[in-house]
Amino acid sequence: MANDIKSGGKRAAQPFNARHLDIVAFAEAGASLSGEDPLSHYARLSREDLDGEGKAVVRWQAQGRSEPVAGGAPEIWLDLQAQTELGMQCQRCLEPMRQALAFKRSFRFVRDEATAEQLDEELEDDVLVWRKDFDLQALVEDELLMELPVAPRHEVCPSTPPMQVQTHDFDAGEQEKPNPFAALKALKKNNGA
Fold first, then answer.
1. By C-alpha distance, which of 42, 106, 41, 39 is closest to 75?
2. How much is the mean pLDDT over the chain?
């Protein structure tokens, strides 16, 4: 895993770990992190990759910022973006395909769940509760999972998908079956009715 750490445009004096990030210190330092990780470092996301070759990578960038507020504590923000590409199956032609996933979002961090719930109802911003031991890469994985399409499809399928349900030999297995009412009529005749 290759991570690049910067603070205010300079190398960070305090190293930040994406798996155990003190989000407040990160934002107050105006620090940034970036990484290019193998898909295998993201267990849930890698289960969605049908290629299974381990070639896919997740590229991400994070920037912390602290926004001053008149008469109050500064707001803690995290600007995050990531992208990857997974092997999936086209739901139209059933052929393999590459599906690009990407997002770019800003997250506001608050001290407690009650504040997060209140702001979540009032604002369009994504609001999270901050912790000293925040897993940034878990957030990257969560956001990429939310970008998965419900039914992945090629823009233009490489082969024409079949447009009929039954094949030409569908009825070949059907043999002339006796009519059940004819069998009942024969039973009646044999019984003298």
1. 106
2. 83
Residue 136 CA: distances (Å) to CA of 1, 20, 90, 150, 151: 14, 8, 31, 25, 28
With CA atoms as reference, report the closest residue to 139 among 150, 151, 127, 149.
127
Please, what's the b/e burial string for 152-168 (b: 16 or more CB within 10 A of its CB; e: otherwise)? Answer: bbbeeeeeeeeeeeeee
* The residue count for the chain: 193
Nearest to 63 by CA among 15, 117, 7: 7
- pLDDT tens digit sequence for 40-72: 999 999 999 998 766 899 999 999 999 998 888
This model's pTM is above 0.85: no
- The phi and psi torsions of 27 (rounded to 5 degrees) equal -70, -45
Q: Where are the beta strands (DSSP E) in the chain?
A: 2-7, 10-11, 31-38, 57-69, 72-89, 96-110, 126-129
